[in-house]
Design goal:
- By secondary structure, this protein is mainly alpha-helical.
- Helix 4 packs across helix 5.
- The N and C termini lie far apart (52 Å).
- The structure holds heme C.
- Heme C binds next to helix 3 and helix 5.
- GO terms for molecular function: electron transfer activity; heme binding; metal ion binding.
- Pfam families: FixO.
- This is Cytochrome-c oxidase.
């Protein structure tokens, strides 16, 4: 009986130690980090796009955490400087991601600022990158015989739009692209921010 209670106490101590080292201390360290200078809060359109990013599972294939040169050649890949805690000050929850089936997207807004490219790429990635394994998102678009006033028509590379029809971006597609364009952490960070 005595050794059982010792085991139990030992297990509790270990659990408490692990929880404080892995949860409590990191939380206290980064809970109140200020945004890096040059960061703007997301607009409501960008926030709705962020919801699309989450619900369409983009983060299962894309990270948002360029790493330091000592860890990975991310800067050479054109993904930007290593991110710091303040770069995520407006992200709740952050979308760091764990998989890199596709490129890191924390600076995609700076790397690819074209709305038309993003819309077309979401409609059909293979129209832009032959052999791409990224899924297409056709339900974010409407195929119409003719564009109506106010429609955002996607100008796809030759031969990718259904014959005689136009591809129109839904508000969801436009919001998602606004969010992608807001992903830009290329500003330099001051030493005390890193
Ligand atoms: C199954 C994995 C997968 C999923 C899910 C996925 N992607 Fe991708 N993505 C890729 C791959 C692979 C590439 C590189 C080839 C290409 O550009 O199509 C890529 C490329 C991209 C690029 C261009 C990056 C660059 O540096 O040129 C953007 C932007 C992008 N994806 C956005 C998204 C968004 C937004 C979603 C969710 C709606 C998404 N992806 C979902 C795999 C994925």
């Amino acid at each position: 009986m005595k050794s059982e209670s010792r085991l139990l106490i030992g297990a509790m101590v270990m659990l408490g130690f692990a929880a404080s080292a892995l949860v409590v201390i990191p939380y206290v360290q980064v809970a109140n980090v200020a945004p890096t200078s040059g960061m703007k809060p997301y607009t409501s359109t960008e926030l709705r796009g962020r919801e699309q990013y989450i619900s369409n599972g983009c983060l299962y294939c894309h990270s948002q955490q360029p790493r330091a040169a000592s860890l990975a050649p991310d800067a050479k890949r054109g993904w930007g400087r290593a991110s710091v805690a303040g770069d995520y000050a407006f992200d709740t929850p952050h979308l760091l991601g764990t998989m890199r089936t596709g490129p890191d997207l924390l600076n995609i807004g700076a790397r690819q600022p074209s709305v038309q490219w993003h819309l077309g790429h979401l409609y059909q990635p293979r129209a832009y990158v032959p052999g791409s394994i990224m899924p297409s998102y056709p339900y974010l678009f409407v195929i119409k015989a003719q564009a109506e006033p106010g429609d955002v028509v996607v100008h796809l590379p030759e031969g990718n739009a259904p014959a005689g029809k136009v591809v129109v971006a839904t508000p969801e597609a436009q919001e998602l692209v606004s969010y992608l364009l807001s992903l830009d952490r290329t500003h330099t960070v001051r030493e005390q921010e890193s």
